[in-house]
Fold this sequence. Notes:
2 domains, 1 helix, four-stranded antiparallel sheet
Amino acid sequence: MMMNRYRLLLLFVAAGCFNSCLGQENGKQLLTLQKEIILANVKGRIDHIDVNVKDQIAYIAALGNNTLEIVDLKSGKVTGSITGLDEPQGVAYIPKHREILVANGGTGACCFYNDLTLKKTGSIKLTDDADDVRYDAETDRIYVGYGSGAIAIIDAATHRQVGNLLLPAHPESFQLDAKANKLWVNLPGSGIVGVADLKRLKLIAKWSKLLPRANFPMAYDEAQHRIIVGYRVPAKLIVYDSETGKELFSAAMAGDVDDLYWDKNTRQIYISGGTGAVNIFKQTGEAAYKQVANINTRSGARTSLLVPELGLFMIAAKADGDQEAALLVYKLSE
Length: 334
C-alpha cells in the first residue's frame, strides 16, 4: 500500500512538472484579445456558453449567479439577463425556432425562452442535475445530460422528451454523430468514455483507464474519426480512434480543463483550463499533434466556446477579488 501511495505521489509530481513547463507563455499571435466584456454583478462560477451566430449574441450560463447573461458581441455589452434560474449549467441556442434552452442543475428543469422577448415558452422537468446540452439541427433534437446517469432526447419543435439514454454515471461532455447513429460521452464517475447506439439507446462500448482520470471535455473530429478528450488527473489530452477506442496521441496540457474544441479548418485543438491558460495543439501528421500555444488568461476561466463562423474564441472568467466577471473575446488568427 505504501509503495502504491509513493508511485501515485511521483505521478502527481511529474504532472506538476509538466504543468510548470506549460506555464511558459507562447503562441500569442494565434489568439488576439479583442474585447473584455464585463458581466457586472455576476458572482460565482460560470458554466457553459452558446451563441446566436447570425445576430452575434452570446448566452452565458452564470451558474453561481442563477442567471443567463445575454451579450451583444458587436457592441460588447450585456443586453439582457434571465433571472430566477437554479444553477444554470447547459445552454443551447435553437436557430430554427428562435429559442434558447437553459438546463438547470439545481432543479433539473430545462426551460425554453424566446430569444427576442426572453419570455419562457416551455419547459421539461428532468430528475436533477441537468447539465451539458447539444442541439442537432439535422434531426431538430436536443440532447441533455442529467441526473446520476442519463441523457434526455427532446424534440425541439414540441418541447417533448422523445427518448432517454441510461448511463452508469453522470454524463459530462458528449458528442454525437446522427448520421452514424452514435454518441460518445465522458463518464468520469465510472472512469470511462462510453459509446452509445442512438437507435437502440444503449451503450455498446466502454473505453476505460486507470489513469488519467476525471475526463470532462470532449470534441469530435468527424472527418478523421477521432474523439478528443481532456483529463484533469493528471492534466492530459488524449486523442482516440472514434471507431475502435485506440489511443492515437497523448500529451500534458493546462490544468483544470473544462472545454476543448477541434477546428477542422485550421486542424487545431483549443483547450481552456482553469489554471488560467489556453493551450492550442496543431495536427502535424496522421496521428501527431504539436502544442503551438500556451496563452495566459485568468485563474478560474475554464469554460469557453469556439465560434469558427465568426473567427472567435470566447472564455468566461468568473469574478475574482477586485476583478469583475467578464467574457474574454479572442480573435482567431487568419
